[in-house]
Amino acid sequence: METPTTTKLYALCSLLLAFLFPISNSVQLDGGKLCLPEKQTSLFIFGDSIFDAGNNNYINVTNGFQANFEPYGETFFKYPTGRFSDGRLISDFIAEYAKLPLITPYLHPGYHSYIDGANFASAGAGALVETLQGSVIDLTTQLSVFKNLTSLFRKKLGDAETKTFLGRAVYLIDIGSNDYSIPFTTNSSMLQSISQQEFVDMVIGNLTIVIKEIYKEGGRKFGFLSLPPLGCVPFTRALKPGNTGACFEEITALAKLHNAAFLKVLQTLERQLNGFRYSIADVYTAFSERINNPSKYGFKEGKTACCGSGPYRGILSCGGKRSVKEYELCENASEYVFFDSAHLSERANQQVAKLMWSGTSNITTSYNLKALFEL
Ligand SMILES: *[C@@H]1O[C@H](CO)[C@@H](O)[C@H](O)[C@H]1NC(C)=O
Ligand SMILES: *[C@@H]1O[C@H](CO)[C@@H](O)[C@H](O)[C@H]1NC(C)=O
Ligand SMILES: *[C@@H]1O[C@H](CO)[C@@H](O)[C@H](O)[C@H]1NC(C)=O
Ligand SMILES: *[C@@H]1O[C@H](CO)[C@@H](O)[C@H](O)[C@H]1NC(C)=O
Ligand SMILES: *[C@@H]1O[C@H](CO)[C@@H](O)[C@H](O)[C@H]1NC(C)=O
Ligand SMILES: *[C@@H]1O[C@H](CO)[C@@H](O)[C@H](O)[C@H]1NC(C)=O
Q1: Is 295 annotated as catalytic?
Q2: DSSP state, 338?
Q3: Using one digit for the tens of pLDDT, what is the confidence trace for 292-344?
Q4: What predicted TM-score, i.e. pTM, was given to this entire model?
Q5: Which one of 1.10.8, 3.30.70, 3.40.50, 3.90.1530 gives the CATH number of domain 40-229+249-285+346-374?
């Protein structure tokens, strides 16, 4: 008796999975037995611009939340991909450390093979539908796309196979920054009518629903980042009335409230949901350290962005394709913590990804991502 080699099996599976989309009644998988390679740990990515590898290239955005033009991508890809950085994102490095290829945005035309996972993240997205409603793919919609995918998997591969596949996968989620900072750009009434804590509870309530729904679909291993000091990025410094360059403490306060409350929710979910495992990295501290002591981490500049305009290059004009057409660009993005007004340089992304992957227990709880992938 000959058994197919893993490589052959993998090739066969990729082929079969390639037929999953678009839904075709003519595809018969003969029960789909043995299709997935053993030990396949896929990566499903949800969230905002921290993780968006190009989904927003394919939607109608009216707010400029796209990065598919130069100089985005200049350092690593040498062309713009839609990523809000000069190169790779945190999620790209995580995929690399997990020995997976870069995870393709699900809206990428012609991409229908989901064996390594999928990236649903959309720049500008929030946990609340109201956050930039109509011009981003909000978290709840990202969940719906994922659910459509899992029902298709079940149909084609059977319940047992799908359960194993989804249970082994890691689900990376980054959300909240836009919910907390966008209201300050528009004088939204949302934050004026309720308390800060009530607002945070609403964001976390919606995020928790999404986590529970992914769990219901079969997801067990979840990876998160805490929110950074949101008022200390170039964009929010420039936004602060008075132009003093100080951090916008009201926004940072929301991030702090969020981080404390979300950690409690994760601990509760771990008790409530059988098999639920999580990793959350203290990115708040990692950001603060790099912003305040850039040279300690190999950077020359921690407060001003490499690309943008105005004070701290905090006006989101990088590339000149949004409402403001003029922008400045530094010579060497690797010397900067921030590439544009609100997003890290590739070098900073890599440092954060390393912390998430192999951080010690004072940085990542309860697991680091490496341990989560190996579970
Ligand atoms: C985007 O907008 C254009 C023009 O309004 C429209 O023709 C097109 O169908 C829209 N595309 C999507 C994906 O909504
Ligand atoms: C999910 O699939 C249903 C049925 O095919 C479709 O109507 C819906 O638009 C899909 N949802 C998303 C978010 O793609
Ligand atoms: C918000 O409202 C205040 C007072 O009404 C006004 O001075 C300020 O310019 C507004 N800010 C924005 C971003 O619209
Ligand atoms: C989710 O957000 C909506 C606003 O978009 C809010 O009305 C609702 O209460 C939130 N849900 C939870 C469970 O917090
Ligand atoms: C850019 O800066 C990084 C970090 O300081 C350095 O390693 C690299 O050599 C610089 N690249 C160029 C082209 O100067
Ligand atoms: C975490 O602990 C390591 C040593 O175990 C130490 O080097 C590092 O500075 C600590 N980091 C933080 C953020 O406390």
Answers
A1: no
A2: B
A3: 999 999 999 999 999 999 999 999 999 999 999 999 999 999 999 999 999 99
A4: 0.90
A5: 3.40.50
